[in-house]
Amino acid sequence: xxxxxxxxxxxxxxxxxxxxxxxxxxxxxxxxxxxxxxxxxxxxxxxxxxxxxxxxxxxxxxxxxxxxxxxxxxxxxxxxxxxxxxxxxxxxxxxxxxxxxxxxxxxxxxxxxxxxxxxxxxxxxxxxxxxxxxxxxxxxxxxxxxxxxxxxxxxxxxxxxxxxxxxxxxxxxxxxxxxxxxxx
Amino acid sequence: xxxxxxxxxxxxxxxxxxxxxxxxxxxxxxxxxxxxxxxxxxxxxxxxxxxxxxxxxxxxxxxxxxxxxxxxxxxxxxxxxxxxxxxxxxxxxxxxxxxxxxxxxxxxxxxxxxxxxxxxxxxxxxxxxxxxxxxxxxxxxxxxxxxxxxxxxxxxxxxxxxxxxxxxxxxxxxxxxxxxxxxxxx
Lengths: 184, 186
Description:
heterodimer; A: mainly beta; Lipocalin; eight-stranded antiparallel barrel; 11 strands; B: mainly alpha; Fumarate Reductase Cytochrome B subunit; elongated
């Protein structure tokens, strides 16, 4: 009886780790969060230098998986002086009012062989649903996580007013992230 | 109205190239100087895009014009002192060089500044050089100095044409006028 109890107790302790997704720690130095847009017909790439991500993931337990990402918008860099001066300003990110963007998943779905994360992105004071493709590759105790999705910048009022002209600044902005994760 | 030039006047193709390019070059030059009057950065972006598109059009017209010059013989020089004929040819040569050099220097500046180059929002052109902010100011200065040099040469070109027309009352300008008729030679 006593051995049975302790066995049950051990099983109860073990259950959350079996049934739930595993937690990972982001390795910022080896990870990138990027965005890609089009200006006057030419593509440009940008990165965010400062961001954090809380990742719980298990391909076998998608309902308990969760991504929670905070992005410091002032850290956006595209390599063009004019653009990098304009991005934090009131016409684009307006970092004085909205210094951070936040993405949190609401559900994960399996679409064929592709895992898709549904979530809410809060950017420029606007919260809208965003869908990301998820590619998760376990590596030892850690993992490599790649996500990609496309957002419409005007859904979030980024580049409104004169800058709303999508024949100059395209509507679609591609978001990509490459995360090097360490097991906890 | 002959397409090709004959002994007495420039053909309609040569005249078309001359006047459409004169209009585009002078217009785009003035437009370029007015860029800072744009209301806000987006209007400036759009004005600059238009300035670049017109400049590229001038460059394309220049190439077509040179090709046409290879096919079409130019009318022989009007009678006049030899030095004036040589001076006219020299001025024309410098104008041809500047008509190509000014758009090309603008394209070069656009390239070293790392900006995209789009023709009337229809298609993009490649960079002429790698991005290099260190020389961007110098290349822009070159673009502007070439333009002011063009203005100086145009003063000579236009001045000489008007002198022939008004004071000499000869055929030099008349044979290039879009709708003018050359005088009968005696």
